[in-house]
Amino acid sequence: MSANAIFQQLHHVRYFAHILVNDENSGVEKGGTMRRPHLLISVAWLLNGSAWFLPVVTGVGGGKIGPPVTGAEAFGMAASAVWPSQFLGTGYEAVLSTLSVLTTLFLIVGSPWVVLRGTRSLRRGSAWVAAAAFLFNTHWYIRLRPDGWISNLGVGYFLWWLSFAILAIGLFDLAGRNNAAESRQRQPALQPR
């Protein structure tokens, strides 16, 4: 991954955090403090963003590798499952890798859209998707044990994995709260004519 691509990823994370904090209908309460669901969602995005640059795999087949595989490189390896001629694993592993890539794309692309534009029911549904992604992505930890092909998962994996759980909690919290903007929009529709 080039330095320019890394800079663009960081810029996107910073941009969404800025929108989240400064949008009048977002998570900022009077006094300038961020509400809990928006804080949790921001933390999930930051954890996921930092995982792209941290070691995800530090050892293969019982031995250390150097340099370790970063999150961005691991994403590229998992995404290679879409092109069978590029992927080194089995069909079963290709399906798991592709689904992991899709969960990551959901977190990077889908969750900002859901937070900024989604309805309450879409946020709740997305929270369930994030929770399922957290549970699904445990397969890397379960399958890649010391006697397996990849023996050592690095801190980047655990931050990436945890980001799904924190996102799910934040989205559940956000979906459960009354949104003042939604309440104002629905109120005229409920009044008798």
Short summary of the structure?
The protein has 193 residues and is mainly alpha-helical.
**Secondary-structure element order, N to C:** HHEEHHHHEHH
Please give the largest β-sheet: 3 strands, antiparallel
Structural class: mainly alpha
- The number of helical runs is 8
Overall shape: globular
> What is the tally of beta strands?
3
The CA-CA distance between the termini, in Å, is 59 Å
Strand residue percentage: 5-15%
Unreliable parts: 180-187
Write the topology of this structure.
Layout: H1 3-22, H2 36-51, E1 55-60, E2 63-70, H3 71-79, H4 91-117, H5 120-136, H6 139-143, E3 150-153, H7 155-176, H8 180-190
Antiparallel strand pairs: 1-2, 1-3
Helix pairs in contact: 1-2, 2-7, 3-4, 4-5, 5-7
Question: How would you describe this protein?
Answer:
The chain is mainly alpha-helical and 193 residues long. It has one domain. The chain has eight helices and three strands. Strand 1 and strand 2 (63-70) form a beta hairpin. Helix 4 (91-117) runs antiparallel to helix 5. It is globular and about 50 Å long.
